[in-house]
Amino acid sequence: MPAPKAPGPRALRSEFLESQKKHPRTFSFEFFPPKTPGGMEKLRATWRQLAQLKPRFFSCTYGAGGSTRERTLETVLEIQAAGHRAAPHISCIGATRADVAATLELYKSKRIDHIVALRGDLPSGAASAGELRFASELVAFIRERTGDHFHVEVACYPEFHPQARSPHEDLRNFKRKVDAGADAAITQYFYNIDSYLRFVDDCEALGIDLPIVPGIMPIGNFSQLARFSDACGAEIPRWLRLKMQSLGDDVASIRSLGLDVVTDLCDRLLSAGAPGLHFYTMNQAGLTSTIWQRLGI
Ligand code: FAD
Known about the structure:
Blueprint: H1 18-21, E1 26-31, H2 37-51, E2 57-60, H3 69-81, E3 86-91, H4 97-109, E4 114-118, H5 135-146, E5 151-156, H6 167-180, E6 184-189, H7 193-205, E7 212-216, H8 222-232, H9 238-246, H10 251-272, E8 276-280, H11 286-295
Parallel strand pairs: 1-2, 1-8, 2-3, 3-4, 4-5, 5-6, 6-7, 7-8
Helix pairs in contact: 4-5, 5-6, 10-11
Bound molecules: flavin-adenine dinucleotide (FAD).
Flavin-adenine dinucleotide binds at residues 61-62, 64, 89, 91, 116, 118-121, 134-136, 155, 161, 163-164, 169-170, 173, 176-177, 186, 188, 215.
């Protein structure tokens, strides 16, 4: 009698993201609000260049504790006034319910109907975490106060959030945001496509059925990226880290390798069925538009 077969590795439910393919593809570009008039001028040139690529929307980040509320709004309104869709981010850490309600009213009064809702991170030295402890509570509050007015995007983490007690709990916490009324999710950036494919697969198993758009970080300045990745829990694969480190200060070669790696990642994601891409532009148009052109979107 032949020996019973050892169980093989668990296959992905759907190698080709059937659950994601049904969502229309959404391409979007993220900025941060500049601190100076010079930075604002540069960003204006950036978004005007990127607007030619006709993204579905632009988004602009929001400093923890509302520290950039005015500049975030100013950036969004300027882009919106030029006829493009623009979504401000909003975070709840360090804020009261009244603060959040006031920001939502302000956004509504400016005819904004699309937001990215986050918990945020407590700045060092901040006294209180605020009244809404997690992004799921923020999403529930947004729905309670404003019904269906906003299209609400939330964050998710294919390589798991650094503060999560376990991968399973992080997934369940993501589901809380979905159940609270999120419409779509944008991932933290990653360079390992398997983390995204497995994450989407796990989400599907939990009954999460909303577009999970990969967040894409083009690689320009590697040492800055490495520092940032250590903090936010995004893994840079060993082969990529070593190759980048071996290039030292050779900015042109770092850019060139980064463009090859990130374009290939985007290409494979779209071929696998990812419902679009969200680019963390770092307020620069060059790398994002080169990737876009190479993809032939
Ligand atoms: P949450 O979903 O609340 O999760 C935070 C942590 O708490 C996770 O570890 C989660 O597992 C855990 N958790 C959640 N719910 C519970 C619960 N009920 N019980 C126990 N644990 C729980 N930051 C900014 O300050 N401004 C921005 O504009 C901004 N934009 C971003 C855009 C994107 C697309 C992404 C991916 C991140 C962005 N961030 C921004 C960073 C984000 O604020 C941080 O990653 C933050 O640490 C977590 O935010 P969150 O909304 O994912 O939090």
